[in-house]
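Because discrete structure vocabularies remain unfamiliar, we first show an illustrative case, written as a sequence plus integers encoding its fold.
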Amino acid sequence: MWGHVKFTTKHNSIVMLSLITMFIFLHVPTINLTFVSFEYAFWMVADHWLNPGKYSDAMGHYFHVQANPLGTSILTYLLFKITHLPIYIWTVRILSILSGALMIITTPSIFKFFAKSDKQKSYLGATLIAINPLIWMLSGRMTADLLPVGLLFLAVLFLVKMPTNWASVLLTTLTFSCAVITKFHSAFLGLIFLFILIKKTEYKINSKLLKKCLFLAIFSSASLLTYLLIIKSNYGFFVIPESQKSLLKLNIFGFFRTLFEYGFFTSVLLGPLSLFTVFNFYKVTNRKSFVIQLFAALIISTIFTLLPSQAGEMDFSFLSEFLALPIIKIIQVSGFTLFILLFLDISKKCFKKKNELSRFVALAVFPLMLVLSFSRPAQRYLIFIIPFLIIFIVNQYIRKDFISKVLLSINTIFCITVILLFSSYHNAQSYSVNNMQNWIVKNGYLKTTHPGDLRPFFTHLYINDIDVNPKNHFVTNDPGDQKVIHKEPVSLFGSFKIRTFYLIELRKPMKYIAR
């Protein structure tokens, strides 16, 4: 498959340049679509800092709809301040696309540093990261999820490519600190940098190494604490805004169900790549042991499906409407079974075979997975985990055999299909939302309309409406028996209606405060 090609230095540059160019270029068609999932909040804060007074209570509104730290808005603000780019939707998404590109660029260096794999396999890993649906879709969005992962990969790149001196440690520490104040989840991946430092000294612990490890740990922790104290001083809360505490509170009793949901969704997001786990397990385990462990994993997965489901964002988006409950249960059980096998293999390679790449991946994946399982589940958090597991699977499981070729071909088809499907949905939704919002503005309904189900897309247009005028109209996906003034359907490929936005007239006026 890839074994017949010999790469030279010139070929290396061409391959990576081509992959990065295609990744960026193919994001262009959707880069200017409507904001989704409260993207506007990051953009609004950066715009507020650039143009003070433009939005009343911009910061208060941000912390009402976001639990994320301000790192994304800070870096966006600095980008516009330095480059003087105009603030459009497509320009604020540049950082996300660059983050996806950083993950692609760094992957071959990780392969070389930990596994000394052949270049063809490392480029295969970079390509699989590039076309993974979760990574692809978030690369075209302005969120606080992909940017910190890009920063983490950049920090890894500094440490594995540069000599182990104070310059590389400083660059890594600064980049890692930026990732942490962009998404707090990044802090739980800090162990990977200490592991890289220890590996580069060939596990020879000395005073110089300890000083560098302590500097990285103390400086990054101090940076986070400084940020938290500034937020506490200015906005009156520590770590999590009051409006988000009920959503993000610790849920000890829901740990196993949440772990189950993260586990099976990890397999779903890996797609057909997750099947390499069971084929590898079959190869390296005797028949009896294979059957026993596979059966045990299936029993555990089945039991976990009986646990009470946790409120969160673990769903299949619009596809949930087309999937029958038995099919969802089959996906959950089979997905978590594959996750258990993957977990067992990574653990075995860490402790029994002392595989360095496995240890690196374990330090990146397991601490965060453990912490995430104590809180509200959301599939987008798996963006921190998926790229590392792709690197592990490519290095440990993929061979130059028939099964690998078949599964890689199926995976490519799967990824492209999912990307096209969700891109089409996002495009259809954007078209519908824009039409509805333009109709509201054009026909003079803006000041009398509560945005309702348009809140994740357009609330920044209503943010200055603090006089709390009574609202006689409302945008909803379920009009009930209310009078419909205007409607805009969301149709996939122009034929399959997924949802509809309705502008309705309220029987009783309501008040709306932007925050």
Residues 155 and 175 are 6 Å apart (CA to CA). The chain is about 60% helix and 5% strand. The first helix runs from residue 9 to 25. The chain has a mean pLDDT of 88.
